[in-house]
Design a protein that fits this description.
The chain is of the alpha/beta class and 482 residues long. Helix content is 37%, strand content 25%. β3 (89-94), α5 and β4 form a beta-alpha-beta unit. The longest helix has 21 residues, at 168-188.
Length: 482
């Protein structure tokens, strides 16, 4: 039985956190000179615009439709409306020829990425019966090179989808840009929690907290472990029992789980939920070394259960103070692909696979079976003891997403697509997967490491490199693929 087939739907047990919906601006346009010349043209184009609005509105978005523009003055007015709407992406539907002066203000004044869409009414014209007016409904491609030229000269990134109105392959390309806009929306408004301190010696993990606000618009909230301690002290015994009951529904408990450790993890989980709610967090990265079983060490060791439950609800958590990886997990979550905290475990040269996983929090949505809670006497490389989350990743395509950083401080999305395949797995309280990248695993590690990806990354189910490439384009950062 897979986790998705669990006896109680995960959405009922762990309702997803609700966030601001992705805001899409929509404007259609054509050259107003045509309307008195060809009276039947504008009604036909408006009907196409309504179809486009309906399709985009059905993509779980909040659409600001500013209507149809016919000249430069109307284009400027539409730009002002869209600027106020604070959109994550603007879709500019070219229904027929229009001048670039009509649309440049929309891209220039809103400071929002624009997707140019031109979708003619059907696959082809009826050449024998068409007059000039009927042809002009098929002329939306005509201004696309003009708009592309002017955008480039204005220093505005240009992206477009050309096709016909009900062409599903074209709509899949549009949907990909909408998914990319969801990533931009999530990062623009995200509040990233950073609790504790850097794992000693891991220089790659260090991230300037100013970098996320300046690159994405995100906020980084610096937290103390005492913020969690204070909330743990306020958890009632009944709340702990309820959380343990929830965990028994979500996880299979191994015989190695000690009751005391299970109760402590449940208590910390309740407090962690309050911490996230009180600070309005969208992600959390944490680490605390601790000493000789003191309280802060026990807090750090007790986070795995609660962090995994939070991650399943759409608030990604990462250990080892991995802020960039918790951001990558949020990106993966935004395209509906899970996103679990991951690193390289070993290479299997006989089977040609890279073994990946991590201790600590995991994304339950990528599990191939009911996840297991295992009792651990030690967390490798960390202080403390308690319960760990263990499962094997669902077999099939996966996409790795890391957030790299270069010498100039710039961030990049780094991706690689592979396939999780069956085979022997470690049983040590970690998430585990065997990923086939279609090449010698040693060569893959060399190529992956040369990108500047860092020690950890997000593992997402499905093939999403194209989604992440599009999102990087909207965010104005590099994308590198292995």
């Amino acid at each position: 039985m897979t986790f998705a087939e669990h006896r109680t739907p995960v959405a009922e047990l762990l309702p997803p956190v609700r966030r601001r919906r992705t805001r899409i601006g929509l404007v259609a346009g054509g050259l107003g000179t045509y309307w008195p010349q060809f009276p039947h043209l504008l009604p036909q184009l408006r009907e196409s615009a309504r179809y486009v609005a309906g399709r985009i509105g059905a993509m779980d978005t909040e659409v600001t439709d500013v209507g149809f523009v016919s000249d430069a003055e109307e284009g400027a007015a539409a730009a002002e409306e869209l600027r106020k709407a604070d959109c994550d992406l603007i879709v500019l539907f070219l229904t027929t020829y229009l001048t670039s002066s009509m649309v440049l203000p929309i891209a220039h004044r809103t400071h929002t990425p624009v997707l140019v869409v031109d979708l003619q009414p059907s696959e082809r014209m009826d050449h024998a019966s068409f007059d000039t007016g009927a042809w002009l409904a098929y002329c939306g491609q005509c201004p696309v090179p003009e708009v592309g030229n002017v955008f480039r000269r204005a220093g505005i990134p240009f992206r477009s989808v050309s096709g016909w109105l009900r062409q599903e392959t074209a709509w899949r390309r549009i949907e990909q840009w909408i998914r990319a806009a969801r990533v931009r929306a999530a990062l623009r408004h995200a509040r990233h929690g950073l609790m504790g301190h850097l794992y000693p010696g891991m220089l790659d993990v260090s991230t300037d907290p100013t970098l996320l606000p300046t690159t994405f618009g995100s906020h980084v909230e610096v937290l103390e472990f005492d913020d969690l301690r204070h909330r743990v002290e306020q958890v009632a015994e009944a709340e702990t029992r309820d959380r343990m009951a929830l965990a028994r529904q979500v996880f299979t408990l191994d015989d190695s789980v000690a009751d005391e450790d299970f109760a402590w993890g449940a208590t910390v989980s309740v407090a962690l939920d309050r911490l996230v709610e009180d600070f309005g967090l969208d992600t959390l990265a944490y680490y605390h070394r601790g000493l000789d079983g003191e309280l802060h060490e026990r807090l750090g060791a007790g986070l795995v259960l609660g962090a995994s439950l939070l991650t399943a609800r759409g608030v990604p958590a990462a250990g080892e103070y991995e802020l960039r990886t918790s951001v990558a997990q949020l990106v993966s979550q935004s395209v509906g692909a899970g996103g679990s905290f991951t690193e390289i475990q070993a290479l299997d040269f006989e089977d040609g696979v890279v073994e990946m996983g991590h201790d600590g929090p995991a994304h339950l949505a990528v599990s191939a079976r009911d996840p297991l809670l295992r009792g651990l006497g030690v967390y490798h490389g960390k202080r403390g003891w308690g319960v760990g989350v263990e499962f094997d990743v669902r077999h099939g395509p996966v996409t790795l997403l890391g957030l790299g950083q270069d010498a100039d401080g710039s961030l990049s999305f780094i991706t690689s697509e592979g396939t999780v395949v069956p085979g022997p797995l470690l049983e040590i309280g970690n998430t585990t997967s065997r990923v086939d990248f279609g090449r010698d695993p040693g060569e893959w590690v060399d190529a992956w490491s040369a990108t500047g990806v860092g020690h950890h990354w997000s593992l997402a189910v499905g093939s999403h490199a194209a989604d992440f490439r599009a999102a990087a384009g909207l965010l104005g950062i590099d994308h590198r693929e292995v």
